[in-house]
């Protein structure tokens, strides 16, 4: 194996040895690329965070915890957020009205209210069907460490690893400790997925009920906001048009229907006047002839194009 | 239209106005016709032969030959046998006497006189040869001088003996002159054993290689030498020496007689054709088109090729232009027609005149022909049956081919050109449902041969007569549409030998089924009754069917002669009947090797039983019951509008039969979708709609369990959903009696909301893209698939061969590990297309032909520029088709690399063209895979072409594993194990394999628990995850779900990358780059990284765990 550079494009390279498996009995290296977390929108704890890319597909928090433990010892690793987890958002679950209005609402929610809402939302979630998710190959993660010092230590340890060639090992089962090992992959994983796909009916019903309660609540909130905002000019002096006013706009469906009807009416009117005058007929005939000519030209072009692709005109033997 | 005055129509706009009429004339087929004309012109250009290059120095050679022949010294009459012996001794040339050879003691005299009349005839003079002809030949005729012949020579082959002698003398002299510079041999003119000719293939002067053309030197008789009145079709002109005058009138010898007439007509026909060529400018072109058409269908002038070749085509056309048909004598065709019009006219002529059954007279005259003279096209002026070389079967085949081509030329919606001229159609596997070879001629009566066509032909005609009676009996119901017999070709032989006695090369029989009748197992013959007529009928029936005929009583108390067959499938039935009847009448098939049947082997690959359709029907019945149960639920808040099946099992299209009755393995519920009456109660939020659907499913489940207590088990399963607004759940309904169904709910509002999101320009791009994908999935499940299922179900009943064709084709996709990338519906539509536009044949009548033609279609489909359009509802207009093509062009312009749209398949229900070739927002298949499909189909067709009937069908289904970079071998035991899961008890069962499994059944916790259905097949889940994780670097290939090997190839485009965040896969620092880069201080510079292949494989091994047994890597 060629020597591996300690850094690459601003990232420290952290090779990880992968133990061989019976189906692929070779010991190979996987490369994690690590740097300090520096997102475009800085956050408070950025100094405690490390940004990882090229995370293995089967990475779990436990896996990373062990890797960091081998580097800088136990107790430095706090948590990890994977790429998929960060992207998730729940804005979809709002009623349409609420989603539209929340942009206008300036009311700040109190913290305990937010926590409450988070709990409610968690209850409304459907149970997961996986014991363990898979990452996309080459994806990223952000690791939160205990303190700023740990970040430096980790980066130093990585540089050291290159000299000692003692790379941390991936998925070292012995170090997991009892009961902490991530659920296995393979057939158990597949079977567990099938089992989890059929949750208990009561659980499911509870979750659905929680969702409807939440949804109703949100709808109500939205209605309140709407009510409040009616006739209340914003700082630029505009009044937001909301549903339920005196001259409330019709629902979108109705508006669309009306428009369709109008277009239909217009078309019918137009149709009545075609082929009415002689000149219309004459023009039409002319058009048709021109069309015929045009088609002929097109056909000829097509045949030419076919001839370009040699062999079209040779009878097969 | 009513008889309303035209004035009123103008005012009334609801009437089909002139606009509609005009539209129909401008669009229906006109465009296709125009293209056909243009393409035919191109074809004529392309096919034109360069005469100078093909026949170098031919004219000089011809002149040379002429002088050589002219200078042959005449000699006085000698006894024939003695003259022949002299010739053999002196020149080592065997006189090519026709069989039976002249008797030793015959007293005819042979002489030789100076030959004076020569002519070059045929397509060399007309310049109507084409490039793709098998071989090019110049026909040179000389006339046997009249002074050598006597008027009585038309009897008993005497003319032919003398002709052979003259030819031998000519051959001897040419051998002397050209022995070194050319290859000389005898052959039969058009395989006619009466007419040997001399063929001379010159050598290249410098290289001494044989040229690619030959000169055929053909003797013929002086025009009008023999009285034509004596040569009519009913005359018998060969009498056996031992025959007494008192013997009953011998059988007529139409072939012998016609050959004699034809001998005298060569010059007359040359003249006729020259005249027409002058009069009609496009005659030559029409002849070339005809030649190509015949050639692509395997017809030729030789007896073994059907006896209808280019010459016959030209003659028919010339006579139609000149004299006209049906004995009236007016010209049928105008000389001012274009070549394509003339071509179509001849095809039309051949398709409407059934001259095999009823003689057809061209020109003014009348004809009395005996009833069994075979096909007759009678040229009244020259009193010759032009079709004398044809056999009843070749005439039937020609008639059929012409009919197919005519219907093709009338179909304005398809490509008319390629099937007419480009495709080669005479491969038996494409054309016939069953092919058999007889290796043995059975008991054969030598004395019966009177008409000089040769033993093999005689035998073939006997077989044909028997099979025709057995398989094409109108009263029983025709089992076969066409019976074709192919006799071996005659081959040339050297001058100093006698014509080789053919080794029994065998006769090939092709049968084209009538799918409605071929599956019949009981043949009902005539009713057995007391009166004489009935008795006679029965006796005839018994006489033909022999011991198998028995009396049976049928409903309505009729007693009939009956034959019962034991086989089940059409192919086997046909084989059984043929074996039985040929053995009965000709004593063939006593030995096993006497008769070989092809086409049955495909059965071993995929057992297609006739009972299969019963299983499918039972499944459909179970679905109907399920639908009834759902509709009868009383407390549902909304009415069920439609419950539709969407899985292949419910449309006769799955490779494996759906399981019937209770079974041990985990149930795999059949997919169905339900939609309810429109309702305003759905919440106006996508996520909320999805939750409502889950609640709805829970409710349906509990209602069903209540109403069918104990008989049904329901489970709500969760989809592997990526976001909140896609479908989240389904309901599995498991009947105790076996069948199980999966239900998904459709909500109108969901579709509307998604549509709105797609159109809403204020939304963020990723939201709109997601909405587009979700909308496509929704429409696929709830609009296209229900329609598609309905369509396929309809056509499965209309075309009996469709269902097995689909299943075979799917098996082929499975075999080549393509299935993972194709939707079921796409494969089904490909099979259906073979039935919709079957040209140049008609709709396949068995799985074999259907399958081979589907492969042929796949190999020829240029999906880069052509959409596949299926008019499933039968009302697609030309405008619609044009729109589809335009849409495809537009897509190709937007996406020239074909990343998002590859195969374009449109039907009446979906004119967007993408519904069947995309799923879950991904294009299925990708360009790479589509190209692989085409390549595989091409090589399969190549094999079919090369191997012919000897093809071992298994070969077509065996995948080539060496093409893959990586092969994942699954552990079949572990893979099977994953299919069995049991509900967990309570909360602890998350990774429940820690549950106690005891060896003893009674201690095992699982005993008594019911298996969970499969939410998704584990093999599918695993591969889906692998594909999702490695969508960048790897493409996976897998066949059926049970396939234990998964192939994969590396994507060559992602092997090396510049380092950045969010690479498409796992990379390792590049070895070479790193050495240089470490010196460079510039950290910002992009650095090369290599794909970490081993790392990825190790990851795959970890994901697969025990399911993957071994990862095989190419190159290690």
Overview of the structural elements:
- Chain A folds into two domains: 7-197, no CATH class; 252-305, no CATH class.
- Chain A is α+β, with helices and mostly antiparallel strands and 317 residues long.
- Chain A has helices at residues 61-72, 83-87, 96-102, 111-124, 148-164, 187-197, 201-229, 252-272, 278-308; strands spanning 7-8, 11-18, 28-36, 49-55, 77-82, 139-145.
- Chain A has a six-stranded antiparallel β-sheet.
- By secondary structure, chain B is α+β, with helices and mostly antiparallel strands.
- Chain B folds into six domains: 49-222, Beta Polymerase, domain 2 (2-Layer Sandwich); 284-426, Poly(a)-polymerase, middle domain, CATH 1.10.1410.10; 428-490 and 502-521 and 565-598, Alpha-Beta Plaits, CATH 3.30.70.3020; 606-777, Beta Polymerase, domain 2 (2-Layer Sandwich); 799-959, Poly(a)-polymerase, middle domain (Orthogonal Bundle), CATH 1.10.1410; 966-979 and 1014-1113, Alpha-Beta Plaits, CATH 3.30.70.
- Chain B is built from 34 helices and 34 strands.
- In chain B, the strands form ten sheets. Chain B has a six-stranded mixed β-sheet. In chain B, strands 19-20-23-22-21 form a five-stranded mixed β-sheet, with helices on both faces.
- Chain B starts with 5 loop residues before the first helix and ends with a strand.
- Chain B: Its main location: nucleus.
- Chain B: One of its GO terms (cellular component) is CURI complex.
- Chain B: This is U3 small nucleolar RNA-associated protein 22.
Topology readout:
The complex is a heterodimer of chains A (317) and B (1116).
Chain A: E1 7-8, E2 11-18, E3 28-36, E4 49-55, H1 61-72, E5 77-82, H2 83-87, H3 96-102, H4 111-124, E6 139-145, H5 148-164, H6 187-197, H7 201-229, H8 252-272, H9 278-308
Chain B: H1 6-11, H2 18-27, H3 30-47, H4 51-54, H5 58-70, E1 75-79, H6 80-91, E2 109-112, E3 118-121, H7 123-126, E4 136-143, H8 158-178, E5 182-188, E6 196-202, E7 213-220, H9 254-279, H10 283-296, H11 310-322, H12 339-352, E8 360-362, E9 377-379, E10 384-385, H13 392-410, H14 417-422, H15 428-431, E11 434-438, H16 455-471, E12 480-486, E13 493-494, E14 507-513, H17 515-518, E15 522-527, H18 532-545, E16 549-554, E17 558-564, H19 570-586, E18 595-598, H20 602-605, H21 612-631, E19 640-645, E20 670-676, H22 686-707, E21 712-718, E22 729-735, E23 740-746, H23 748-759, H24 765-798, H25 802-815, H26 824-836, H27 847-860, E24 868-870, H28 878-894, E25 905-907, E26 918-919, E27 922-923, H29 927-947, H30 954-957, E28 966-970, H31 972-977, H32 1018-1029, E29 1034-1037, E30 1045-1050, E31 1056-1058, E32 1067-1069, H33 1071-1079, E33 1088-1091, H34 1093-1104, E34 1108-1113
Parallel strand pairs in B: 4-7, 8-9, 20-23, 24-25
Antiparallel strand pairs in B: 1-2, 3-4, 5-6, 5-13, 6-7, 9-10, 11-14, 11-18, 12-14, 15-17, 16-17, 19-20, 21-22, 22-23, 26-27, 28-30, 28-34, 29-30, 31-33, 32-33
Helix pairs in contact in B: 6-8, 9-11, 10-11, 10-12, 12-13, 16-19, 23-24, 24-26, 25-26, 25-27, 26-27, 27-29
């Amino acid at each position: 194996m060629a020597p591996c550079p300690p850094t690459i494009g601003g990232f420290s390279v952290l090779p990880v040895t992968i133990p061989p498996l019976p189906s692929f009995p070779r010991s190979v290296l996987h490369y994690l690329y690590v740097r300090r977390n520096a997102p475009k929108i800085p956050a408070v704890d950025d100094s405690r965070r490390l940004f990882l890319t090229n995370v293995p597909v089967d990475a779990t928090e436990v896996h990373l915890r062990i890797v960091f433990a081998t580097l800088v010892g136990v107790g430095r690793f706090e948590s990890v957020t994977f790429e998929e987890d960060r992207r998730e958002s729940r804005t979809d679950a709002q009623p349409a009205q609420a989603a539209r209005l929340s942009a206008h609402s300036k009311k700040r929610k109190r913290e305990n209210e937010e926590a409450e809402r988070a709990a409610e939302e968690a209850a409304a979630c459907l149970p997961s069907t996986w014991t363990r998710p898979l990452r996309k190959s080459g994806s990223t993660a952000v690791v939160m460490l205990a303190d700023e010092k740990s970040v430096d230590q980790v980066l130093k340890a990585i540089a050291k690893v290159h000299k000692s060639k003692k790379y941390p090992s991936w998925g070292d089962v012995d170090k997991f400790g009892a009961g902490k090992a991530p659920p296995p992959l393979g057939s158990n994983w597949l079977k567990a997925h099938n089992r989890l796909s059929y949750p208990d009916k009561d659980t499911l019903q509870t979750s659905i009920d929680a969702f409807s309660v939440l949804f109703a609540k949100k709808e109500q909130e939205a209605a309140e906001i709407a009510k409040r905002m009616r006739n209340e000019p914003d700082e630029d002096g505009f009044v937001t048009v909301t549903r339920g006013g005196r001259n409330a706009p019709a629902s979108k469906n109705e508006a669309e229907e009306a428009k369709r009807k109008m277009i239909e009416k217009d078309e019918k009117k137009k149709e009545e006047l075609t082929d009415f005058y002689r000149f219309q007929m004459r023009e039409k005939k002319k058009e048709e002839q021109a069309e015929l000519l045009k088609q002929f030209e097109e056909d000829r072009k097509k045949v030419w194009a076919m001839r370009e692709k040699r062999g079209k005109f040779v009878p097969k033997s | 239209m009513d008889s309303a005055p035209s004035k009123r129509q103008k005012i009334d706009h609801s009437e089909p106005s002139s606009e509609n009429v005009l539209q129909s004339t401008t669009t229906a087929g006109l465009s296709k016709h125009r293209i056909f004309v243009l393409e035919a012109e191109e074809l004529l250009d392309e096919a034109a032969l360069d005469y100078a290059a093909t026949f170098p120095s031919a004219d000089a050679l011809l002149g040379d030959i002429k002088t050589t022949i002219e200078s042959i010294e005449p000699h006085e009459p000698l006894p024939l046998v003695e003259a022949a012996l002299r010739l053999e001794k002196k020149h080592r040339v065997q006189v090519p006497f026709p069989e039976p050879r002249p008797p030793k003691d015959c007293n005819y005299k042979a002489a030789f006189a100076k030959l004076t009349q020569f002519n070059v005839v045929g397509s060399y003079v007309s310049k109507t040869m084409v490039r793709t002809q098998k071989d090019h030949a110049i026909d040179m005729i000389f006339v046997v001088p009249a002074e050598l012949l006597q008027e009585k020579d038309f009897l008993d082959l005497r003319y032919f003996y003398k002709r052979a002698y003259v030819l031998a003398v000519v051959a001897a002299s040419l051998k002397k002159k050209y022995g070194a510079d050319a290859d000389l041999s005898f052959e039969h003119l058009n395989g006619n054993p009466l007419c040997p000719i001399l063929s001379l293939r010159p050598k290249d002067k410098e290289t001494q290689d044989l040229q690619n053309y030959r000169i055929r030197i053909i003797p013929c008789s002086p025009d009008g030498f023999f009285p034509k009145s004596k040569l009519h079709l009913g005359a018998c002109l060969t009498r056996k020496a031992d025959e007494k005058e008192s013997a009953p009138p011998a059988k007529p010898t139409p072939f012998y007689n016609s050959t004699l007439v034809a001998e005298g007509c060569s010059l007359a026909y040359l003249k006729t054709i020259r005249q027409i060529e002058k009069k009609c400018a496009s005659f030559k072109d029409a002849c070339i088109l005809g030649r190509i058409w015949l050639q692509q269908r395997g017809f030729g002038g030789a007896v073994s090729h059907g006896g209808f070749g280019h010459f016959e085509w030209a003659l028919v056309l010339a006579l139609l232009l000149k004299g006209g048909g049906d004995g009236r004598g007016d010209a049928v065709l105008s000389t001012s027609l274009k070549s394509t019009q003339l071509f179509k006219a001849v095809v039309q002529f051949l398709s409407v005149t059934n001259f095999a059954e009823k003689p057809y007279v061209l020109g003014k005259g009348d004809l009395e022909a005996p009833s069994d003279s075979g096909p007759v096209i009678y040229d009244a002026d020259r009193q010759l049956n032009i079709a004398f070389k044809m056999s009843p079967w070749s005439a039937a085949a020609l008639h059929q081919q012409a009919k197919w081509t005519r219907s093709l030329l009338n179909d304005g919606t398809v490509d008319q050109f390629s099937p007419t001229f480009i495709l080669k159609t005479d491969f038996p596997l494409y054309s016939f449902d069953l092919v058999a070879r007889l290796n043995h001629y059975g008991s054969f009566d030598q004395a019966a041969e009177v008409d000089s066509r040769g033993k093999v032909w005689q035998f073939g005609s006997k077989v044909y007569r028997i099979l025709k009676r057995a398989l094409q009996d109108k009263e029983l119901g025709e089992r076969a549409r066409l019976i074709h017999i192919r006799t071996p070709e005659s081959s040339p032989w050297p001058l100093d030998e006698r014509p080789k006695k053919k080794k029994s090369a065998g006769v090939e029989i092709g049968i084209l089924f009538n799918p409605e009748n071929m599956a019949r197992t009981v043949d009902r013959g005539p009713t057995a009754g007391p009166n004489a007529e009935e008795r006679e009928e029965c006796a005839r029936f018994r006489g033909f069917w022999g011991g198998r005929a028995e009396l049976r009583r049928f409903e309505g108390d009729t007693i009939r002669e009956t034959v019962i067959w034991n086989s089940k499938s059409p192919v086997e039935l046909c084989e059984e009947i043929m074996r039985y009847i040929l053995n009965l009448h000709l004593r063939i098939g006593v030995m096993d090797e006497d008769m070989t049947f092809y086409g049955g082997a495909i059965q071993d690959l995929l057992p297609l039983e006739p009972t299969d359709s019963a299983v499918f029907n039972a499944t459909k019945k179970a679905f109907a019951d399920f639908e009834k149960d759902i509709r009868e639920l009383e407390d549902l808040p909304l009415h069920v509008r439609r419950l539709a099946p969407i899985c292949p099992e419910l449309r006769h299209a799955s490779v494996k039969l759906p399981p019937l009755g209770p079974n041990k393995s985990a149930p795999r519920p059949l997919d169905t979708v339900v939609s309810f009456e429109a309702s305003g109660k759905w919440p106006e939020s996508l996520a909320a709609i999805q939750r409502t659907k889950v609640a709805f499913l829970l409710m349906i489940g509990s209602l069903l369990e209540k109403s069918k207590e104990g008989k049904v088990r329901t489970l709500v399963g969760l989809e592997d959903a990526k976001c909140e607004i896609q479908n989240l759940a389904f309901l599995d309904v498991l009947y105790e009696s076996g069948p199980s169904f999966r239900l998904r709910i459709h909500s109108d509002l969901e579709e509307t909301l998604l549509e709105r999101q797609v159109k809403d320009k204020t939304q963020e791009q990723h939201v709109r893209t997601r909405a587009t994908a979700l909308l496509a999935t929704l429409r696929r499940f709830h609009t296209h698939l229900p329609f598609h299922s309905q369509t396929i179900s309809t056509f499965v009943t209309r075309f009996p061969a469709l269902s097995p064709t689909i299943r075979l084709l799917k098996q082929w996709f499975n075999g080549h590990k393509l299935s993972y990338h194709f939707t079921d519906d796409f494969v089904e539509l490909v099979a259906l297309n073979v039935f919709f536009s079957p040209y140049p044949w008609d709709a396949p009548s068995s799985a074999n032909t259907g399958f081979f033609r589907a492969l042929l279609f796949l190999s020829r489909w240029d999906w880069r520029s052509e959409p596949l359009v299926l008019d499933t509802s039968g009302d697609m207009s030309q405008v619609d088709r044009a729109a589809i093509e335009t849409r495809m062009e537009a897509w190709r312009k937007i996406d020239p690399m074909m990343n998002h749209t590859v195969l374009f398949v449109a039907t009446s229900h979906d004119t967007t063209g993408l519904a069947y070739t995309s799923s879950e927002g991904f294009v299925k298949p990708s360009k790479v895979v589509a190209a692989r499909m085409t390549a595989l189909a091409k090589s399969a067709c190549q094999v079919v072409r090369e191997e012919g009937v000897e093809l071992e069908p298994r070969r077509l289904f065996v995948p080539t594993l060496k093409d893959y970079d990586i092969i994942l071998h699954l552990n079949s035991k572990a893979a099977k194990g994953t299919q069995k899961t049991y509900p967990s008890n309570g909360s602890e069962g998350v990774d429940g394999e820690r549950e106690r499994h005891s060896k003893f059944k009674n201690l095992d916790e699982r005993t008594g628990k019911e298996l969970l259905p499969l939410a998704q097949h584990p093999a599918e889940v695993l591969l889906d995850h692998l594909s999702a994780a490695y969508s960048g670097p790897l493409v996976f290939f897998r066949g059926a779900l049970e396939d234990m090997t998964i192939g994969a190839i590396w994507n060559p485009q992602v092997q090396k990358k510049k380092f950045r965040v969010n690479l498409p896969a796992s990379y390792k620092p590049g070895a070479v780059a790193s050495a240089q880069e470490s010196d460079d201080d510039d950290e910002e510079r992009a650095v090369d990284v290599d794909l970490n292949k081993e790392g990825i494989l190790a990851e795959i091994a970890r994901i697969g765990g025990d399911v993957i047994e071994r990862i095989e890597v190419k190159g290690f």
